[in-house]
Amino acid sequence: MHRPLNIAHRGGAGLMPENTLAAFADAIARGCAPPHGRPAMEYGAELDVQLSADGVPVVHHDFRLMRDVARRNGVWLRELGPRIKDMTCAELRTFDVGHPRPGSDYARRHPVLRAVDGQAVPTLEAVVALAAAAPRPFTLMVELKCDDSEDSADPVMLGDATYDVVQAAGFLDRAIFVGFDWHALFAVKARDANAVCWFTTDKLSGDARAAIDIIAGAGAEGWFPCYLDASPENVAHARGRGLKVGAWTVNDAEVMRRLSGLDAICTDRPDMLMDLQSP
Length: 279
Fold this sequence. Notes:
single chain, eight-stranded parallel β-barrel, 10 helices
């Protein structure tokens, strides 16, 4: 029976504080030592990489520290925080991002999340080291978090710095680089034609085949669409162009079942997907 790669989105944002070492450790434990005597499965985690002011690849989703998530000295940010690119790695790590503010919109959107106090914004190096030490192979889907806005890091600089960390750790064979800004992926490919890149697309309007053809022509290994675009016709076209296909972000059991033929499913609830994949 085919089972797609079970990718814990931001480390499993529905279960653990997103993009933290606690979340990635939990994802590794689920994949490498699953509960209730279930067999180990192909498992991984997705994470978002940006650059700090001193050029360190760090893991955080928003371009600014997330309000109602980041806190310092016990006080949560109630407005948009400072930009990641404007803070040094040391400054970022003075914030705790492991315990969303109780009663906030964020907390209500994640009702079963287990808060873990004392979680600083991690470096990419620390996350890769954790994954590399897993007791069985564990994949990291590394999103290069950038765009053409003033809040973003330069995509080429981000691609280069991210590649350097993954390559130095000897982890290229278990890394999939993804991202909406393809300039960053082109930068990775320029460094290493063998680096695995799945080009991400937002919800597409109209026929997806043109975008798929561009992705295949760019030398990508995969297409990583919004799950709404992962129709049988689009998936067949992508596979016909030699691409693997994963989908983001799938949190509904029925949609998981429908997409079970994909190469990867990215989800906030890897436990739910594991239940569906179990014999």
